[in-house]
Amino acid sequence: METTFTPWSSLGGGVLIGLAAVLLMALHGRILGATGILGGLLRFDDPVDWRLRAALVVGMAAGPLVYLLATGQMPIIDLPISNLAVAVGGLIVGVGVSYGGGCTSGHGVCGNARFSRRSMVATLCFMATAFATVFLLRHVVGG
Is 93 part of a structural domain of the chain? Predict the structure, then answer.
């Protein structure tokens, strides 16, 4: 399984995530925890909060359309794993988010930037788990 290193695309994505986190905090006083924002769409008790969450999710999903407008073609999304593996991975991440009290954007981007010890521990835990998973899948299980 080959992985293509894309430093400029990765840097651009990181800058956009950081900018989104700063703007959400500056304009709304909210932490950008993407999974929490998505999960909050299932609650309808606060219409203003729901609209903000919906706008953020629509904005995240609109990325390929922005790319299409900028380049004239849809981005190529080529994953080295099956759709089933993506779905199972998403479910595992969802369970981890529930037990960890936050996601990679909430803890890894926003929490670490605020020097939150809890977020630093959470980030170390999910990064160690990610490294171990990649090692096991690539070098022990194979594929």
Answer: yes
* Domain count for the chain: 1
- What lies within 8 Å, CB to CB, of 81 at 6+ separation is 89
- How far CA 99 is from CA of 53, 65, 78, 126, in Å, comes to 22, 34, 30, 11
Residue 1: inside a domain: no
Q: What is the pLDDT of residue 131?
A: 92
Please report whether residue 47 resides in a domain.
yes
Instruction: Look at residue 57 and tell me if it is in a domain.
Output: yes
Are 17 and 109 a contacting pair, CB within 8 Å? yes
Give pLDDT tens digits for 33-53: 888 888 889 888 999 999 999
Amino acid at 72: G
